[in-house]
UniProtKB/TrEMBL annotation:
Gene3D superfamilies recorded: 2.60.120.1130, 2.60.40.3140, 3.10.620.30
Species annotation: Chryseobacterium oryzae
Protein name per its UniProtKB record: DUF3857 domain-containing protein
Residue ranges of every copy of the DUF3857 domain listed in the record: 56-208
Pfam families to which the protein is assigned, alphabetical: DUF3857, DUF3858
C-alpha cells in the first residue's frame, strides 16, 4: 500500500460513520484555524497471515471552506493484488441533512499520476464532488484487502496544517501468529497524546479533540510536532517476496537480495559506455566524470513499476531510454560505477526540507527517495542522480543533515548525510553603486552562492535570459528596478557554486531633503515581514545555518560629501550574529555587512526573541546615510 515515491508520498484515504454530523456540534476550539474537521475516523486492521492484511476504513470530515476540498476528496490508492469493496459516500449539509449518496460506480479509476508523466502500476479511485455551499460533511467508508504486509501505516492525528480532529481510532487485530512490533512517539512539545487500550483481542489507539495546527511562520514539518504510533511485523510479504525485519541488517539483506541484486545487471552496451570515457586519475576524478556523463544523457521521469513500486528499473532500460526515476537513475549510476571497478551503495532517505531521520531502534519499511554513496579513503562521495544540473558530490537541503539507510550485500548501514556549516551555506555579494541626483542608482554586482544557498539558485540554470531577468527582479524586491540584467551565469558542477553578474538601474532609492539626499545603508537584503506573536501555538525551526557577506561600494554624485552616517554595529543572539561597518574613502562610502544564522528547532516561547533579532537587523540594514553638496 505504501510506495517509495521519489520526492513525495501519497497518503492513504479515509473513512466513514453512520451519523449526520451537524456542524453546530463542533466546538469553537476545533473550529479555530481549521479548514476541515475530522469528525470521526476509524481504521480496523486485521493481519490474517504473512501475505494478507484487511483494512476497514471509515471517516466523516466536515469541510469548513474551499481550502480543504482537496483534503476531503474520497480517494483510494491500490495496486494489482488489492481488493477494494463496500465503498459508500454520503454528503450532509451544515445542519446534518443528507444531500446525496454515492457508491463505487460513481468513482473514477485512474493511474495515480499526480507527479505528471510517468509509468506506474499504482491506481487511484476517486469521487469528484463539487460543493455548492460550505460547510458540508463527507462520510466515506471502504474495505481493502492487501497482499503486502510490509506497509502498516503509522497512526498520526493528521498530516497537514489547518485540520482539526474530534476523534480518530486505529485498531489492530493480529491473527497471523507473527510478532507485531509497535512504538509510540510522544509529541516533543506536548501538542497531543494517544490513548492505548486492549479491545476484543486487539490493541486500540485513539486520539481525541486535537486542535488544528495553523501554518505559522517557520513551523516545522507536522511529523516533528505531532505524536505517532509506528507498527511493523517481524516477517512480511511484498508482492510475494517474503522477508524478515527484526533488525536493520535482516531487512537490508532482504532488500539487497530481492530488490537490488536482480536488477544489478550490466550489459555490453554499458561496458562500452565506461570504456569510451577513458577513465583515469583518482577515484574522485573518475566518479565525477561518470556522474557528469550520466547527467548529460538522462532525465527524471517518475516510474513505479516492479515489486510494489520499490524495485528500480533495469539499468539497460535507463541506458536505452535515457530516463528513470530516483530508483532507476541511482541503480544505473551504480552499475556504471561497478563497471569502472568503483564500489557504491544504494541509499534510502526521507527527503524533506525539515530533516527527518529513521529510528535506529525500530526497523521498518520507510523512505521516499534514493541517492548513492561512494565510500573513498578521503571520505564519502554523495550523488543526487535525478538532477541534470546538480553539482558533483553535493546534496540539496532536502537530503542533508539526517540519517539514511545504505543498502549493502550484508545488510543496512545507517549513515549520516553531510551537515553543511554556515560557512559552507554562503552568499557573497559585491555591489558597485552609483548614486545619482535624480534619486536613481545604477550599478553592477557580483553574486556567489555555495551549499544550501547554491540549491536555491539552481533554478536559474534551466531558465532563458528573459526568465532569468524576471526571476531575479522579483526575488530582489527591496529595489524598484527600472531595468536589470543577469549575465555570466555559471553553475560550477565541480565545486557546487553558482555565480553571476547583475547590471541594474533602480528608481526612488534616495529621498531629497532640501539640497541633500538620504538613502539606506543596504540596497539588497532579505525583505521578510516579522511580527510579534504573543499567542503563537507552535515551535519554530531554522532549517539550516547560513552566512551572507556583503560589500557595497557607493560612489557619490559629483560635488557631494557624506554629512551623516551610522555607527558601526553588531548584534549577537542564540539565533546568529550580525555586523555592519561604514568607511569613507574619497568620493566613496564602503559598507560591509556580515550576517550568520544558526539552525535549530526552538520552542514557541522564543519566537518573539527571534522576531526581535531579525527586526534589529532590518533596522540596521535600513539605517540612513545623509549626503550633501559641498559648500
Amino acid at each position: 500500500m505504501m510506495k517509495l515515491w521519489c520526492i513525495g508520498a501519497f497518503s492513504l484515504a479515509s473513512f466513514y460513520y453512520a451519523q449526520n454530523y451537524p456542524v453546530s456540534e463542533i466546538s469553537d476550539v476545533l473550529k479555530k484555524n481549521a479548514s476541515a474537521v475530522i469528525r470521526n475516523e476509524s481504521t480496523v486492521l486485521e493481519i490474517n497471515k504473512i501475505d494478507e492484511i484487511f483494512y476497514r476504513n471509515s471517516s466523516a470530515i466536515t469541510v469548513i471552506n474551499k481550502d480543504a476540498v482537496g483534503f476531503s476528496v474520497p480517494k483510494i490508492y491500490y495496486e494489482k493484488g488489492n481488493t477494494v469493496s463496500n465503498i459508500k459516500v454520503t454528503i450532509y449539509d451544515e445542519k446534518g441533512a443528507k444531500v446525496k449518496s454515492y457508491s463505487r460506480s460513481d468513482f473514477s479509476d485512474v493511474a495515480a499520476n499526480s507527479q505528471g508523466s510517468f509509468y506506474s502500476d499504482n491506481r487511484m479511485m476517486y469521487l469528484s464532488y463539487t460543493p455548492t455551499s460550505y460547510p458540508y460533511t463527507i462520510e466515506f467508508s471502504y474495505d481493502q484487502k492487501d497482499q503486502n504486509t510490509v506497509f502498516i501505516p503509522d497512526f498520526i492525528p493528521y498530516y497537514g496544517f489547518n485540520i482539526s480532529l474530534q476523534k480518530s481510532s486505529f485498531k489492530i487485530i493480529n491473527k497471523s501468529g507473527i510478532n507485531l512490533r509497535s512504538k509510540t512517539y510522544d509529541s516533543s512539545f506536548g501538542f497531543a497524546s494517544v490513548n492505548v487500550s486492549d479491545e476484543d483481542g486487539g490493541k486500540l489507539y485513539t486520539y481525541q479533540n486535537i486542535p488544528a495546527m495553523d501554518h505559522e511562520d517557520m513551523v516545522p514539518n507536522p511529523q516533528k510536532i505531532l505524536p505517532k504510533v509506528s507498527f511493523s511485523l517481524d516477517q512480511f510479504s511484498l508482492v510475494g517476496k517474503k522477508g524478515n525485519i527484526t533488525t536493520w541488517k535482516d531487512f537490508g539483506l532482504w532488500y539487497y537480495n530481492n530488490l537490488l541484486k536482480p536488477v544489478s545487471v550490466s550489459t555490453p552496451q554499458i561496458k562500452s559506455e565506461i570504456a569510451a570515457l577513458n577513465l583515469s586519475g583518482s577515484t574522485e576524478e573518475r566518479v565525477k566524470k561518470i556522474y557528469q556523463y550520466m547527467q548529460s544523457k538522462t532525465r527524471y521521469v517518475f516510474v513505479a513499476l516492479g515489486i510494489g513500486g520499490w524495485q528500480p528499473m533495469m539499468p539497460d532500460e535507463v541506458q536505452k531510454k535515457g530516463y528513470g526515476d530516483c530508483k532507476g537513475l541511482t541503480n544505473y549510476m551504480k552499475t556504471l560505477l561497478d563497471e569502472a571497478g568503483i564500489n557504491s551503495y544504494y541509499v534510502i532517505v526521507n527527503s524533506n526540507s525539515s530533516p527527518i531521520s529513521f529510528d535506529v531502534n525500530f526497523p521498518k519499511m520507510a523512505g521516499n527517495h534514493v541517492i548513492l554513496v561512494v565510500p573513498t579513503e578521503k571520505g564519502n562521495i554523495w550523488l543526487e542522480n535525478t538532477s541534470q544540473e546538480m553539482a558533483y558530490n553535493h546534496l540539496s537541503f532536502n537530503t542533508t543533515d539526517r540519517n539514511v539507510l545504505a543498502v549493502k550485500p550484508n545488510g543496512i548501514d545507517i549513515m549520516e548525510t553531510p551537515s553543511y556549516s554556515s560557512q559552507q551555506n554562503k552568499e557573497k555579494q559585491v555591489l558597485n553603486v552609483q548614486l545619482n541626483p535624480d534619486k536613481t542608482i545604477t550599478g553592477n554586482g557580483k553574486f556567489i552562492y555555495t551549499g544550501n544557498q547554491y540549491d536555491f539558485n539552481l533554478v536559474f540554470a534551466g531558465l532563458g535570459q528573459s526568465e532569468k531577468n524576471n526571476t531575479i527582479k522579483n526575488r530582489l524586491s527591496t529595489l524598484d528596478f527600472e531595468k536589470i540584467e543577469m549575465s555570466d551565469f555559471k553553475n560550477n558542477r565541480d565545486l557546487a557554486t553558482i555565480d553571476f553578474d547583475l547590471n541594474f538601474k533602480a528608481v526612488n532609492y534616495s529621498k531629497i531633503v532640501g539640497s541633500s539626499y538620504i538613502f539606506r545603508a543596504v540596497p539588497i537584503y532579505t525583505n521578510s515581514i516579522y511580527h510579534q506573536n504573543e499567542k503563537r501555538n507552535l515551535p519554530f525551526e531554522i532549517r539550516f545555518s547560513y552566512e551572507d557577506e556583503y560589500e557595497i561600494i557607493y560612489k557619490l554624485p559629483l560635488g557631494y560629501t557624506i554629512e551623516e552616517m551610522p555607527e558601526n554595529g553588531s548584534i549577537n543572539s542564540e539565533f546568529g550574529s550580525y555586523k555592519i561597518s561604514f568607511e569613507k574613502k574619497e568620493d566613496q562610502l564602503i559598507v560591509k555587512r556580515f550576517f550568520q544564522v544558526n539552525k535549530g528547532l526552538f520552542p514557541k516561547e522564543k519566537y518573539n526573541d527571534y522576531v526581535s533579532f531579525r527586526k534589529k537587523i532590518m533596522n540596521s540594514d535600513n539605517s540612513k546615510i545623509l549626503i550633501s553638496k559641498k559648500s
